[in-house]
Design a protein that fits this description.
Elements lengths: L5 E4 L2 E4 L10 H5 L2 E3 L2 E6 L2 E5 L1 H14 L8 H14 L5 E9 L13 E8 L7 H6 L1 E5 L20 H13 L4 E5 L5 E4 L3 E6 L2 E4 L10 H13 L3 E3 L4 H5 L3 E6 L3 E8 L2 E2 L5 H14 L10 E2 L2 H4 L1
Parallel strand pairs: 8-9, 8-15, 12-13
Antiparallel strand pairs: 1-2, 1-7, 3-6, 4-5, 4-6, 5-17, 6-7, 9-10, 11-12, 11-14, 14-15, 15-16
Helix pairs in contact: 2-3, 6-8
The structure holds 4'-deoxy-4'-aminopyridoxal-5'-phosphate.
Length: 307
C-alpha cells in the first residue's frame, strides 16, 4: 500500500502516521464502524470523485442504522473528501471515509462512545489485479452464507459485517481461487466478498435483486445504466450457482474491482472477457475518466474548480 501524506480526522488534517486510535476503541472490539469505498479519477478537468453524493447518502444510511450521528452535513463531508484528495496531490485514488465509535466505556452499549469521522486516500490500482481486467478471476462459491437482513443488514456498509466477507475470502484463497461469491440464507447468489455479480445469458444481463442480501452497489447501478444505454436488457432476478457455471459471460463489479470479468466459478470455465462485458467495461472506464459526456453528471468536481 502506498501511503499518502495526510488524513482528515474530525475536521482537521493529521499526518498519515499519526492517524491512530486507542486500543479500547469500541469499533475495534465490536465492529461499530461504517464506511465507504469511493474512487477519484483523473479527468481532463482534474480529479473527479465518482458518484460522491450517492456514496455519502449510503454512508448516512449506514450510520443511521447504528445510531451514529455523522456530525457533519453531507456537503461538508464532500468538501472534506475533495480537500483530502487535493492536499495529498493524488488525482487518481481510492477514498475511504469511515465513521466509528471511538474509545470510551467498554461494553456493547455504544451510545456513550464518541463518534469519530475520518477520510483517508491512497493510490490503488486494479483491486483484483491489472491482468484480471482482461483475463478475469477465478471464483469459488463460499460455504459461508452471506449475512442477512435480520442478522447484519447487508444494505449497510458496516465494519463488523466484513468479517463475513473475510471468512469467504480466506476460504477462496485456500482453495487457490481469486475471489469468493456468497449465497444468501435461501441459497441464491448474493454478492462477491466485495463486489456485485452479473451473469450474461443470450445477450441479457442478470443480477441478484437487492433483496437477495447483496450490498446495493453503486457500481452495480452504474452498470445497469450503462447496459440500458447500450441497448441491453437487465433483469434483477434470483440466481443460483449454475446460472454462473453456464453463463455466456459473467463479471464482478464494485468501486475497488471496477468491472472485472469472471473466468471461472468452482473450476467451471466461463471464459475470458466476453463482448458484452467488454462493452460495459469500456464504457465504465470512459465515464470515470470523464470521456463520456452522456454520464458526466456522475462525476463530482471540487466546487472551487467548477466556478
Ligand atoms: N458487495 C459488497 C459486499 C461490497 O463490499 C461492495 C463494495 N462496496 C460491493 C458489493 C460493491 O459496491 P459499490 O459498487 O458501491 O462499491
Amino acid at each position: 500500500m502506498q501511503p499518502t501524506e495526510k488524513i482528515w480526522r474530525n475536521g482537521s488534517f493529521v499526518p498519515w502516521d499519526e492517524a491512530n486510535v486507542h486500543i479500547l476503541t469500541h469499533a475495534l472490539h465490536y465492529g461499530t464502524g461504517v464506511f465507504e469505498g469511493i474512487r477519484a479519477y483523473d479527468t481532463p478537468r482534474g480529479a473527479a470523485v465518482f458518484r460522491l453524493t450517492d456514496h455519502l447518502e449510503r454512508l448516512r444510511r449506514s450510520a443511521a442504522l447504528y445510531e451514529m450521528d455523522l456530525g457533519y452535513t453531507l456537503p461538508e463531508l464532500a468538501e472534506a473528501i475533495h480537500e483530502t484528495v487535493a492536499v495529498n496531490n493524488v488525482s487518481s485514488c481510492y477514498v475511504r471515509p469511515i465513521v466509528f465509535r471511538g474509545a470510551g466505556p467498554m461494553g456493547l452499549y455504544p451510545r456513550d462512545n464518541p463518534v469519530e469521522v475520518a477520510v483517508a486516500v491512497w493510490p490503488w490500482g486494479a483491486y483484483l489485479g491489472e491482468e484480471a481486467l482482461e483475463h478475469g478471476v477465478s471464483c469459488k462459491i463460499s460455504s459461508f452464507r452471506r449475512i442477512g437482513p435480520n442478522t447484519l443488514p447487508p444494505t449497510a456498509k458496516a465494519s463488523g459485517q466484513y468479517i463475513n466477507s473475510v471468512l469467504a475470502k480466506l476460504e477462496a484463497s485456500r482453495a487457490g481461487d481469486d475471489e469468493a461469491i456468497l449465497l444468501n440464507e435461501e441459497g441464491y447468489i448474493a454478492d462477491g466478498s466485495g463486489e456485485n455479480v452479473f451473469a450474461v445469458r443470450d445477450g441479457v444481463l442478470h443480477t441478484p435483486p437487492t433483496t437477495a442480501s447483496c450490498l446495493p452497489g453503486i457500481t452495480r447501478d452504474t452498470v445497469m445504466r450503462i447496459a440500458h444505454t447500450l441497448g441491453y436488457d437487465v433483469r434483477e432476478v434470483n440466481l443460483v450457482r449454475t446460472d454462473l457455471y453456464f453463463a455466456d459471460e459473467a463479471f464482478l463489479c464494485g468501486t475497488a474491482a471496477e468491472v472485472t470479468p469472471i473466468a471461472s466459478v468452482d473450476g467451471q470455465q466461463i471464459g475470458g472477457r466476453g463482448p458484452i462485458t467488454k462493452a460495459i467495461q469500456d464504457t465504465f472506464f470512459a465515464i470515470v475518466s470523464g470521456r463520456d459526456e452522456r454520464f458526466s453528471d456522475l462525476l463530482d468536481y471540487p466546487v472551487r474548480a467548477a466556478v
